[in-house]
Amino acid sequence: MSDSPSVYDAIVIGAGAAGLFCAGVAGQLGVKVLLVDHAPKVGEKIRISGGGRCNFTNRELDPRAPHRHFLGGNPQFCRSALSRYTAGDFIDLVRRHGIAFHEKHKGQLFGDRSSEDFIRLLLAECGAGGVEHWQPCRVEAVRREGERYAVDTDRGTVHTPRVVVATGGLSIPQIGASDFGHRLARQFGLDLVEPRPALVPLTFGGEAWQPYAQLAGLALPVRIATGEKKAAMAFDEDLLFTHRGLSGPAVLQISSYWTPGTPIRVDLAPGSDVAQLLAQAKLRSRKLLANELAAIVPARLADAWTQQDPGWQRPVNEAADKALGALAQGLARWELLPTGTEGYRKAEVTAGGIDTRMLSQQTMESRQSGLYFIGEVVDVTGWLGGYNFQWAWASGWACGQAL
Ligand code: FDA
Questions:
Q1: Alpha-carbon torsion angle 166, 170, 174, 175, nearest 10
Q2: Which of 253, 242, 250 is nearest to 203 (CA)?
Q3: Is the peptide bond before 173 cis (omega within 30 degrees of 0)?
């Protein structure tokens, strides 16, 4: 065991959203922080987030009711951090850095220019806190040595009383994601909730999918649902047909709640009484049913849908009432069984992670004294729409205060 004094009060592993923010906050409180990341560039996920504009938070987040926008073993766990560092606090910081932003949809805030503005903000905050960076730098092991930790890196071993794990989830391994945080938790005997891809496109296959394969590229607003009774969850968002299945915000949102082997339900014409509209059309029109339907849903969908039944391939005035009823019912309650997801390659986040029962909700310190976990590596998963970044900021802030 080395007797040399710890040069750093804390080592933060992972220079993504949570790690950068935590390091800056702690540094500005006088904590001597070393920030280490194995990727050549900081904040790669911030860079690609929000289509390159970074959906950095959400105005609709209510910290008193985190279960509305977060899932995990205990959604109430994030209440403390989200209440102490709010969306409003991060918005103030963005304003102080002179970054222009706008609200797009359902409280989602995006930068006007580029995600790079947010990376610069985080680096400036780290700079103001005198944070030292080692990057790219591989962390080979973290060992307990008496009262402190020895962190073995490819630049040598450093000692510290506190280690913050901010290594994120498993999504998009091609830009640096790793299971480091999960392995470290296991090494120190901390429980994990089985990780799984979330906010991810769903795949479909076989003959049942054939009629819809031709719709790749088509987007439309839908109401999408999964689960039954108390466990039912629904979203009103856009759905996108892809070559392998379904994507778009509606599907990404529902994928976080979907359990393999269970169906999802889609209303392809939400807000329209398709049965009534077709009954009225039958009284006044001789157009093909597909053409009448195209007034309610996109024409490509109307064509593909009506090809499925000979009773739907005729003028609307000649269609049987039963056939029209079945058509309306099918569009309003399209039930389909996903074969799987596109996996971590396409998932925006990883659900599961460090079991929140292992962590203090005030400080993010684990039962292993001096070892902290923040951001996506924790079993806290937000909805699409800036919620995951707000969790990264809030958990990073809570931890940064406590170091
Ligand atoms: P993050 O993944 O940001 O950082 C982890 C860091 O740890 C990385 O820099 C990585 O290199 C490093 N690391 C991993 N293993 C390591 C090891 N062994 N040693 C050293 N370093 C290691 N969210 C949102 O709110 N709004 C949005 O607009 C989007 N958009 C979006 C788009 C896409 C395509 C994706 C994939 C994800 C999003 N997200 C999002 C989700 C959001 O990016 C994500 O939840 C946060 O970045 C999580 O922040 P963390 O700091 O926890 O992990």
A1: -20
A2: 242
A3: no
pLDDT at 180 over 90: yes
Is the ipTM reported for this complex over the cut 0.90? yes
- Report d(CA 97, CA 303) in Å as an integer: 51
Tokens coding 154: 């490819």
The CA-CA-CA angle for residues 384, 385, 389, to 5°, reads 95
**Is the distance from the beta carbon of residue 395 to the nearest atom of ligand 1 less than 6 Å?**
no
Identify whether the C-beta of residue 134 lies closer than 8 Å to the C-beta of residue 36: yes
Tokens of 318: 């000649």
Q: Is the CB of 282 within 6 Å of ligand 1? A: no
The answer to whether the CB of 56 falls within 8 A of the CB of 111 is yes
Q: How many CB atoms lie within 10 A of CB 246?
A: 26
Which of 12, 21, 41, 45 to probe ligand 1 with, by most ligand atoms within 8 A of CB?
45
User: Which tokens go with 355?
Assistant: 């079991």
pLDDT digits (tens, 9 = 90+) for 136-158: 999 999 999 999 999 999 999 99
Please give the full DSSP string across 314-335, using - where no structure is assigned: SBGGGS-HHHHHHHHHHHHTEE
